[in-house]
Amino acid sequence: MVSNPALGVLFHWLGGLASASFYVPYRGVKGWAWETYWLVGGIFSWIIAPWFLAGLMTKDLFSVLSEAPARAVFWAFFFGLLWGIGGLTFGLTMRYLGMSLGMAVALGLCAAFGTLMPPIFAGTFLTQVLGTSSGRVIMIGIVVCLSGIAVAGLAGLAKERTVSPEQQRESIKEFSLKKGLAVATLSGVMSACFAYGLAAGSPIKALTLRHGTATLWQGLPVLIVVLVGGFTTNFVWCLILNVRNRTGRQYFTRAQPDAATGPTPMISNYLFCALAGTTWYFQFFFYTMGETQMGRYGFSSWTLHMASIIIFSTLWGIGLREWKGSGAHAMRLLTLSLALLVGSTVVVGYGNYLAIAR
Fold first, then answer.
1. Pick from 84, 100, 129, 331: which is nearest to 229 by CA?
2. Is the CB of residue 35 less than 8 Å from the CB of residue 238?
3. For the chain, what is the total number of helices (H) and then of strands (E)?
4. Is pTM beyond 0.70 here?
5. What mean pLDDT is predicted for residues 40-69?
6. What would the pLDDT profile of 66-100 be if each residue is shown by its tens digit?
7. What are the backbone dihedrals phi and psi of residue 211, each rounded to the nearest 5 degrees, phi first?
8. CA atoms of 90 and 9, how far apart (whole Å)
């Protein structure tokens, strides 16, 4: 299959749109604690959607997973466990900082670690990245991306100085800058482990190709393993919170402790969670497709993914009025951030094109 970086960028943008949009349906959930709706949505994200689509799009899925090298399966699962911590704190980041600022901080760190560490550990960073013209162009694109993320963070700080606490909590009910920055930092570093898990699962990709899977879908079996690791972490933590907060009943009953709030809309809650979870999964469904189009610089996919997520999450934040009353300076910074992020995807895509055209 011939690589096509332009098509790869498009796939990454679709994945970014899915990732930036997944949290919106959770706003329709009523009467459930965070741990309840996060776990219900996660079952669709990490179990149902990955198995269903991999079974549909790949060949001999169960045989591939059973024949896969134990080392590859272990490390893909292990990095999925670590990524699960990032996923947990990512949800908390949205609660405390909102979509725009929260994603900028968390994904900035995630972009840096997730993009650069795989080629460094593989020993190809100096030779294939810094040592080639196409690799250097990609590095410029990565720097532009990180600059755009930093400017987005500055926009968030400018908003913080301008908007009153009452206005902040009008759009983000649990807004807390200190808590948000702490969990966003942990989330960003640990979330980068997803990229390591995909890299560790490369033998599984090779195996599914030998079984006749089309190149475009080769990453889907690896997603299953990484996401099972992520599910394990999230499942344990959400159950702990269910027990601690006595919210386990919410999965099964419409009754509310406070009669004034009325019964819980169980069907709509499950539907909103299913929509949120499935939408979340599609970010990596498209990510694995985009990665197949980026040639030998597949590690750059992580930068494209992060940039597109922040672009679309920022647009969602504007649409949901999270930036209302933030002032002209904050909006100018936000506009500059979007321009840098869009530009970074063009530069990274061009760098991959140069590698193919040589």
1. 84
2. yes
3. 14, 0
4. yes
5. 95
6. 999 999 999 999 999 998 888 777 767 777 776 55
7. -85, 0
8. 24
Helix (H) / strand (E) element for 237: namely: helix 220-245
Tokens, residue 347: 């530069």
| Residue 118 contacts residue 291 (beta carbons within 8 Å) | no
90-99 burial by CB neighbour count: b if 16+ within 10 A, else e? bbbbbbbbbb
292 within 8 A of 208, measured Cβ to Cβ: no
Position 167 pLDDT exceeds 60: no
Q: How far is CA 63 from CA 58, 59, 208, 281, in A?
A: 11, 9, 9, 23
Q: What is the DSSP letter of 322?
A: T
- C-alpha 188/C-alpha 194 separation (Å) is 11
Collapsed DSSP state (helix, strand, coil) of residue 20:
helix
* Local structure of 26: helix, strand or coil: helix
pLDDT class for 48, splitting at 50, 70, 90?
very high
Residue listed under structure tokens 């969990």: 183
Tokens for 200, please give them.
Answer: 């560790």
Burial class from Cβ neighbours inside 10 Å (0-12, 13-18, 19+) for residue 170 reads: middle
